[in-house]
Write a structure and sequence with these properties.
single chain, about 900 residues, mainly beta, Phage tail protein beta-alpha-beta fold, Immunoglobulin-like, 4 domains, 22-stranded antiparallel barrel, 5-stranded mixed beta sheet, 56 strands, about 55% strand, globular
């Protein structure tokens, strides 16, 4: 027995040694950093193996009958051997294993004898969510590490990937989160929910470590799209310490701010109304609080923000310049969380948690400014006059989600915001009011339906109501007289749409859908009241009936992958019915990306856009009283086409960079005629007050982003030209657009000193705005009777360039983790070195006389006036 046991022991040792040797040989062959460079189209797999044997000294063993009539199309550049073999055998019923220095090719025993495994495929579908908050992650990536095939999640965190039966290693990743990697034996369709954790990948939601991995911008097919984590946007210092996403995106290339300190944006030469701003898929018509100083988007309620400057996908339509797609948080399904902050200008509170755990959740967020309470003591009370300033805003966000089951989910979301600006002056004789009120009411109901493993549908009902009213009145207490002027305007939308995501294979991602919107435009109501005593005076009212219009659209787009080349091909078609007139438009959209190597890509895009809505606004100011009006029988829709070309890449997995050039042409853009403006806002004649013309813009943009390490941030530069031309403005000659600025440079950096201290800083520089100013007036002739005829010579429109603007903003955050909550003190300074950036021009006139004292004309002295000095801020925030 001992001899037998010894023989058995020797045999076991020999077998283990042989196995280890084979394993070691396999590892040495597979893992010895053999990188394959090879490309072919529909080439026999047998010939591919012959080429590998000759080029890389690899030996293959196989049954020639198994390889008969089997071909492959591959493009391999610096690809590891294991991945190369997987790509070659991907669509066959063949597998491989390594024995010593030989690669053995054999037939999959589980395959149907009459069908190869390329016809036996399985689909993994589901959702990718945040492990802590349960929020769905938009644009998260899931990739099979063996084949390199993958996809991304849609706007609701849904993904679907179809692969041949077999064993796979699926890796899910998202910027700022720890990767999730798991082995799957895919023998049948599967539905999963993958949760990603941010706790190991970020410090205070900003600093990203090397564990975080995601698809870089340069690898995506979409061109001119910038998606920056909301946590990073919130870290950027802004005026009065009020976090503002719209101000933060002004730091991105191609985006120009309006006046100093305001949240308006002008993108690639476009007007403010040419930006499609969506909140949970619903258009926002006025995104500004406090006359543009703040935006309506409360960062505590926002999950994601995506900006598209060009190469617009077919699923978007209705505007010429940009898409700003903002998504609200959905609420935590597992436990309650909250955020609260108190600042110099406003306070905020957000709560999120489950009503029924893992089934129904709710998010509620509220914000209110108390600027009116702060400003009131600063107004002088003279001559027994009481001044009551009205300068405040409040807004509320709410959202509820109901996960009925794995296939059905329902979401209800709403936003309500209100602004009041002006003052009331009261004394013993009369009370005077000068007030502007405006606000947005927005709501949406969405139904997500996973029809099957490859088809996802989202049905949305939308409601949007924007309204503005103004009041200027004086009422006497003694003589009971009333002189008042009231004005109101607005737009009301009711809409419905359905969108589909169809993923037949990892090489195709098809989106299609249709929608309809009923618009009701209220160009304005003027009501003038003049009464004295009990007798009514003469009233002068101007009212125009609301204009009803219907807008429908349908689209289809397909993102196609062909090796290193990917393309997004689509078409968007729309109809607009108004005043017995129907306009139609067919808009092709093309986008291409070619991956030159693993760190460099080239992109190109072409898109056409049509816009049926117009904002009547003055170039001098942007006010809530600007009027939204539709295309009519007389006012044609705006059209544009835009082409772009760009390069992008990644350096040492820490820096991403992109360089783009673009050209955009616009037709039927609108402007007030010379001599008219929003001051002359008689709603009955608004069509007579405007003119239509053309525009063009072109330029180049540079964007650099660092996403890993203690120091993160962005650097952007824009070189651009933007012009407009109207037949009856500026003598029909081309002139610079008001926000034509040659140079825009910005940098935003965040440095995580430790877990308890964080520094943030912005520095921006921009060329001055182009404005029109009078130069002088002079008498053209001196008739024998009457006054001389005065001629004004103002030069070309927008021919004067204001001085450049630049400023430094910074903030420091002190963070401390308490037992039940985290508290943060934020101290910051806006315009730190007190640069007097021009906000407006003050024009002072001076007479020109001859030696006899006769007036010859008038000259104008221009003085630039600044508005915003150095502004300190402090806020206290808690998270629980």
């Amino acid at each position: 027995m001992q001899i037998k046991n010894k023989y058995i022991l020797f045999i076991l040792i020999a077998l283990i040694g042989s196995i280890n040797e084979l394993k070691g040989n396999e590892n040495s062959l597979i893992n010895q950093n053999i990188l394959i460079n090879y490309s072919c189209k529909n080439k026999s797999i047998k010939k591919i193996f012959d080429d590998f044997k000759k080029e890389y000294q690899l030996n293959f063993q196989y049954n020639p009958a198994d390889l008969k009539k089997k071909t492959a199309t591959v493009e391999l550049k610096e690809v590891p051997l294991k991945k190369a073999l997987n790509e070659i055998l991907n669509k066959t019923n063949l597998l491989y294993k390594v024995n010593a220095r030989e690669i053995i090719i054999y037939k999959n025993k589980d395959s149907d004898l009459s069908h190869s495994t390329e016809n036996i495929k399985v689909t993994v579908s589901g959702y990718i969510t945040d492990a802590e908050t349960t929020e769905s992650l938009i644009g998260a990536t899931i990739v099979d590490e063996t084949t390199g095939l993958g996809t991304v999640t849609n706007e609701y965190g849904f993904f679907s990937i179809t692969l041949p039966k077999g064993d796979y290693i699926l890796k899910a990743s998202y910027l700022g989160y720890k990767n999730h990697t798991k082995n799957y034996q895919l023998l049948k369709d599967a539905s999963v929910e993958i949760q990603l954790s941010s706790s190991s990948a970020v410090i205070n939601e900003v600093v990203i470590t090397s564990e975080s991995e995601s698809v870089s911008n340069f690898e995506k097919t979409q061109m001119s799209q910038l998606t920056i984590p909301v946590a990073q946007l919130k870290s950027m210092p802004v005026i009065l310490g009020e976090e503002d996403l719209m101000k933060s995106i002004q730091l991105l290339p191609g985006v120009k701010s309006g006046s100093e300190g305001t949240s308006g944006i002008f993108i690639r030469g476009g007007s403010e109304d040419q930006n499609l701003i969506l909140l949970d898929g619903v258009p926002v018509y006025n995104p500004a609080h406090a006359l543009g100083i703040f935006s309506v988007f409360n960062p505590d309620a926002i999950k994601s923000l995506s900006l598209i400057n060009g190469g617009h996908p077919a699923r978007y339509g209705g505007r010429l310049s940009s898409i700003i797609d903002i998504r609200m948080k959905e609420g935590n399904l597992e436990k309650w969380h909250g955020d609260a902050s108190i600042g110099l200008i406003s306070s905020k509170l957000s709560l999120s948690g489950p009503i029924i755990k893992d089934k129904i959740s709710i998010l509620a967020s509220a914000r209110r400014t108390y600027a009116d309470l702060i400003l009131k003591p600063l107004f002088p009370q003279e001559n027994d006059q009481n001044i009551d300033p009205s300068f405040f805003f409040h807004d509320y966000n709410a959202k509820m989600q109901y996960r009925i089951n794995d296939r059905h989910r329902i979401y209800l979301s709403a936003y309500f915001g209100k602004d009041k600006f002006g003052a009331v002056f009261e004394d013993s004789i009369s009370v005077q009011k000068s007030l502007i009120n405006w606000g947005n009411n927005i709501s949406a109901m969405r139904w997500n339906y996973k029809i099957n493993k490859k088809l996802f549908a989202n049905t949305t009902l939308t409601y949007s109501d924007y309204n503005i009213t103004t009041e200027n009145s004086q009422e006497g207490f003694i003589d009971t007289t009333l002189n008042a002027s009231f004005y109101s305007s607005g737009i009301l939308d009711l809409g419905a749409k359905i969108d589909f995501d169809y993923l037949p294979s990892p090489d195709h991602y098809i989106k299609f859908g249709l929608g309809i919107v009923r618009h009701e435009y209220n160009p304005g109501i003027n009501q003038n009241i003049n009464t004295q005593g009990e007798e009514p005076g003469n009233g002068n009212n101007a009212k125009v009936a609301g204009i009803e219009a219907f807008e429908t659209d349908i689209y289809i787009e397909d993102e196609i992958k062909m090796g290193r080349l990917s393309a997004n091909l689509g078409i968007h078609a729309s109809l607009f019915a108004v005043e017995n007139k129907t306009y139609n438009s067919v808009q092709p959209r093309l986008g291409f990306r070619y991956l030159i190597n693993n760190g460099l890509s080239i992109k190109a895009s072409y898109s056409t856009m049509t816009q049926y809505i117009n904002l009547l606004t003055s170039e001098a100011l942007s006010l809530p009283s600007d009027i939204w009006v539709p295309s009519t029988n007389r006012i044609l829709p705006q059209d544009s086409w835009q082409a772009g070309l760009g390069l992008g890449g990644k350096i040492s997995n820490k820096f991403e960079w992109e360089v783009e050039g673009y050209y955009k042409s616009m037709d039927n853009v609108i402007s007030y005629q010379e001599g008219t403006s929003f001051v002359d806002r008689d709603p009955r004649n608004w069509e007579n007050q405007i003119t239509q013309g053309s525009g063009e813009s072109y330029g180049g943009e540079v964007f650099i982003q660092k996403t890993e390490g203690k120091l993160t941030g962005i650097v952007s530069y824009t070189l651009s030209w933007s012009n407009r031309q109207f037949e009856d403005i500026n003598n029909g000659e081309k002139f610079p657009f008001r926000f034509d600025r040659r140079h825009d440079f910005s940098t935003a950096l965040v440095y995580q000193v430790s877990d308890k201290i964080k520094l943030s800083a912005n520095w921006v520089f921009s060329t001055g705005n182009a404005v029109s100013v009078p130069k002088f007036t002079y008498p053209a002739q001196f008739p024998t009777r009457g006054n001389p005829i005065i001629v004004e010579d103002g030069g070309s429109k927008n021919s004067f360039r204001m001085s450049p603007s630049h400023r430094l903003d910074w903030s420091i955050s002190f963070i401390k983790q308490k037992r039940k909550y985290q508290r943060t003190w934020v101290i910051g300074f806006y315009n730190t070195y007190f640069n007097k950036n021009p906000f407006y021009l003050q024009v002072e006139s001076e007479g020109i006389f001859d030696k006899n004292g006769n007036i010859l004309g008038t000259k104008y002295n221009l003085n630039e006036r600044s508005l915003l000095p150095i502004i300190p801020s402090v806020s206290y925030q808690i998270k629980f």
